[in-house]
Specification:
Elements: E1 2-6, E2 9-14, H1 16-23, E3 28-33, E4 39-47, E5 53-57, E6 60-66, H2 67-74, E7 83-88, E8 96-103, H3 105-112
Parallel strand pairs: 2-8, 4-6
Antiparallel strand pairs: 1-2, 3-4, 5-6, 7-8
């Protein structure tokens, strides 16, 4: 999983293999180890019947994706437009963090072929 941060936008790009693992119920993770034992971890997990959510954890965060939203996105693959989630920072606030999940389009074309027009 590739992670790109800019302000309140988090872009996550995963491969077709990571997508398959995610759909099989596994957690997809990025871990960056830094000096002095510091580690930053980002996790992506799929769940039934949940609202999208971003949860702070010791040393990072986890993003919960609803299975139905991911399935609708996967039906459009390969495509350049990702699955965009707008998640409030706290209940009752207008501040949000946006998660943009994308399956690598080149990997997707190799796996799925070119879509018909």
């Amino acid at each position: 999983m590739k992670v790109q941060l800019q302000g309140q936008l988090v872009r996550l790009r995963i491969s077709e293999a990571e997508l398959a693992r995610l759909q099989a119920g596994e957690t997809v993770e990025n871990l960056t180890r830094l000096p002095d034992g510091l580690a930053l971890r980002q996790r992506l997990q799929l769940e039934e019947g949940v609202q999208p959510a971003l949860q702070a954890e010791a040393g990072g965060w986890a993003c919960r994706l609803p299975r139905a939203e991911l399935a609708a996105y996967v039906a459009r693959l390969p495509c350049r437009e990702g699955l965009r989630l707008r998640l409030p920072l706290a209940q009752g606030t207008e501040e949000v963090v946006e998660i943009d999940l994308e399956v690598d389009v080149r990997d997707s074309v190799r796996s799925r072929g070119v879509p018909r027009r």
